[in-house]
Structures are given as structure tokens and as C-alpha cells.
Amino acid sequence: RKGSWMQVDASTGLIAGVSFMESPNRSPRPKRSEPELIVVHGISLPAGQFGGGYIGKLFTNQLDTRMDPRFAELTGLRVSAHVLIARDGHLTQFVPFGQRAWHAGESVFQGRHECNDFSIGIELEGTDASGFRDIQYERLESVIRLLREVYPRIGSDRVVGHCHIAPGRKSDPGPDFDWGRLQRNLGITRPITQRRVLAT
Prior knowledge:
Layout: E1 8-9, E2 14-15, E3 19-20, E4 26-28, E5 37-43, H1 54-59, E6 83-85, E7 91-93, E8 99-101, E9 108-109, E10 112-113, E11 119-125, H2 134-150, E12 159-161, H3 162-165, H4 179-186
Parallel strand pairs: 3-7, 5-11, 5-12, 6-11
Antiparallel strand pairs: 1-2, 4-8, 6-7, 9-10
């Protein structure tokens, strides 16, 4: 079956055989909390450019923000995601699934705040305007299938974009992200943007 080549190592919370770059930007999940939500993001560093390894450096606090004036606003920023899917489809994991990655920020899902507590963050290398490649969608679908098997609380209505849990503050993965593809291939319910706008 598609995606069955991947497995999560229960002892580590990592996808077996996938590149791992340990991020210090993580924390324990609240007691008795487990992943119930997948949040899809889009990211590029510098904005609109791909490759270069800068995303990994950002997530591991190794990015020298003095090297490019476009990085200045990232000085002191401490963020991470569980998984990054590069333009070529390469997967890198930064945070074990049993721990909180710092990806959602101020956020709300179905009335619940602090989405980092109960979500898994997946970053796709791209921008709102660039769209994403077929190989990235294929990898994303494989990861979602895997996570839904391991964490059964992630239902068909619990795969959303950053834009849906932080409306007005975040726009990724962008208007051109193909939610219809996930709906067709995975039975994912197309997310509805919340009316409530979070304070910036």
C-alpha cells in the first residue's frame, strides 16, 4: 500500500530511515496529550528561494542571521516543525512526534488554543505563490497516511493549513495548495477557514 514503506519507531517517535536533525526548539506535550491534528505549512529561506539548507539551520538555531539582510527579522526566533518536505521530496525530521514542535504559534482549532500541544507540524518547502511539486504532495500523503495509522485521533477533519488555525496572521500553505488532491486521495475533509481572526 502507498506509504507503507515508512514506519514510526515507537521508542523514539521518529520515522525510521528518515534524515533526522535534532531541534532544540521543542518541549514536552501536556500529560495525556497525543497528536490529534496535522498542520501543513509552507516555508522558504530566503523568502522565495529554495535549497541552501537554511531551513534546517533555522530549526536548529544555527542560522547566522547576519549573512543576509533578509534574515534580520529571524534574529532570536526559536521555531521548528516535526517534518520538512523539500522541493525534491526529501524528508527531514526535526522533532519526535511525541514532543511539541514550535510551529503553530498563537492558534485555535475548534475552540482549542495552543495547537502545538496536540498537533504535528509538516513544512513544505515553497511559498504561497510558488505552489508545490507532485513529489512533495506524494511524500505528504505518505506521511499523513502513516500518522493517521499511528495516531488514530487524527481524523479526516483534522488535517489543516496554518492559515486555518491562525487566520489573519498566517496564510500558508497558500491559496494554490491542492486540498482537493488530499480530499480525493486520502478522504481528508476540506478545511474551512475560521471566522475568528487571531490578534497578531
